[in-house]
C-alpha cells in the first residue's frame, strides 16, 4: 500500500512524503512484520530520474513482498484466513477450504455459514477484541469448526493482528490447525507405546522361560542317557522332553510376536 502524506519540518515548512507499507512474513507461523518506507515526494522530484529509480525499486520490493505473502498464504499445509475486525472472512486458502468442506469462493463470498460453533462465537469475539485493543499480541485458542454437513472438527486458532498506518488495526490473520489429526496421532503414539511395553514384558518373560527350558531339556537328555531302553521310567522322561520341546517352540513364537532378535537360541 502506497500513499502520499504531508508533514511539517521543525521550521514549519511543508514536506510531502511518499509512504509505502508492505506485509513481510517472518520465520515462524503467524509471525508478520510491516515494512514502512518513507521518501520525500514532490512534483519536481517525481519527474527526476533518481526519484523514478527509487520508486521503481520500492515498487519492485513491494511486489516481491506481496508475492511472498501470497505464496505463503496459499501453499500453507494448514488453514489460513484473513478476517476483518468484525469477524468477516475476506480471504482463505485451499487448506481451510478442504478442512471446512466448502470452496474458497463459498468461504470468501459468504455462501458458507459461520464456521464456528454457536457456543464458541462469543468467546472468539472476545479474543479478537483483546487483539485489537492490544491486550495480547497474538492469541492461541481452540474452537469447534462446523464442516459442511454439520460435522464438528476441533481446531486450534493462532491469531495475529495486522496493523496499518500509525499502528491502526486492520485485519486478523488466523492459522487454523486440525486438532483431530494431532489427537489421532497422539492416540496412535500412546497405543504404540503400550504395545512396546507389552513387547518388552513378553521378551523378558520369554528369555526367563527359555532359560528354565534349557535346564529342563538338558537334565532330561542326561537322564535319558542313563536310563536303559527297557527302563519303565524312560517313557516318562521322553514325555518330559517332548513337552519341553513344545514349550520351546511356543517361546520362539512369543519372541517372534514381541519382535525379539532372531539370533536368540531357544532350548533344543
Task: Return the average pLDDT rounded to an integer.
Answer: 75
Runs in which pLDDT lies below 50 for 5 or more consecutive residues are 260-267
One letter per element, helices H and strands E, the order comes to EEEHHEEHHHEEEHH
Largest pleated sheet: 5 strands, antiparallel
Q: How much helical structure, as a percent, in the residues?
A: 40-55%
Radius of gyration: 36 Å
Biggest sheet strand order reads 5-4-8-7-6
By helix and strand content, what is the structural category?
alpha+beta
Distance between the termini: 82 Å
3D shape: elongated
Count helical runs: 7
Total DSSP E strands: 8
Strand content: 25-35%
Describe the protein in words.
- The protein has helices at residues 43-46, 49-75, 94-100, 104-109, 118-132, 179-226, 233-257, and strands spanning 2-8, 14-25, 32-40, 79-84, 89-92, 138-146, 152-163, 169-178.
- The chain is α+β, with helices and mostly antiparallel strands and 268 residues long.
- The chain has a five-stranded antiparallel β-sheet. It has a three-stranded antiparallel β-sheet with strand order 1-2-3, with helices on one face.
- Residues 260-267 have low confidence and may be disordered.
Concise description?
With 268 residues, this protein is α+β, with helices and mostly antiparallel strands. The protein contains 7 helices and 8 strands, in the order βββααββαααβββαα.
Amino acid at each position: 500500500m502506497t500513499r502520499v502524506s504531508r508533514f511539517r519540518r521543525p521550521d514549519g515548512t511543508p514536506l510531502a512524503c511518499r509512504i509505502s507499507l508492505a506485509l513481510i512474513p517472518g520465520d515462524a507461523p503467524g509471525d508478520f512484520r510491516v515494512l514502512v518506507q518513507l521518501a520525500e515526494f514532490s512534483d519536481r522530484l517525481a519527474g527526476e530520474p533518481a526519484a523514478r529509480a527509487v520508486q521503481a525499486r520500492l515498487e519492485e520490493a513491494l511486489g516481491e513482498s506481496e508475492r511472498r505473502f501470497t505464496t505463503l498464504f496459499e501453499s500453507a499445509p494448514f488453514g489460513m484466513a484473513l478476517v476483518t475486525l468484525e469477524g468477516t472472512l475476506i480471504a482463505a486458502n485451499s487448506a481451510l477450504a478442504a478442512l471446512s468442506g466448502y470452496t474458497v469462493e463459498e468461504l470468501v463470498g459468504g455462501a458458507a455459514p459461520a464456521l464456528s460453533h454457536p457456543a464458541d462465537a462469543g468467546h472468539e469475539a472476545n479474543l479478537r477484541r483483546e487483539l485489537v485493543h492490544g491486550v495480547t499480541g497474538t492469541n492461541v485458542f481452540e474452537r469447534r469448526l462446523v464442516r459442511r454437513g454439520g460435522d464438528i472438527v476441533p481446531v486450534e486458532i493462532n491469531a495475529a493482528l495486522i496493523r496499518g498506518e500509525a499502528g491502526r488495526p486492520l485485519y486478523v490473520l488466523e492459522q487454523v490447525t486440525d486438532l483431530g489429526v494431532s489427537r489421532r496421532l497422539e492416540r496412535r503414539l500412546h497405543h504404540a507405546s503400550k504395545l512396546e511395553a507389552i513387547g518388552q514384558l513378553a521378551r523378558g518373560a520369554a528369555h526367563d522361560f527359555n532359560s528354565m527350558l534349557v535346564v529342563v531339556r538338558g537334565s532330561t537328555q542326561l537322564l535319558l542317557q542313563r536310563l536303559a531302553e527297557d527302563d519303565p521310567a524312560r517313557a516318562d522322561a521322553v514325555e518330559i522332553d517332548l513337552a519341553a520341546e513344545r514349550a520351546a517352540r511356543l517361546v520362539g513364537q512369543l519372541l517372534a510376536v514381541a519382535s525379539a532378535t532372531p539370533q536368540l537360541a531357544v532350548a533344543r
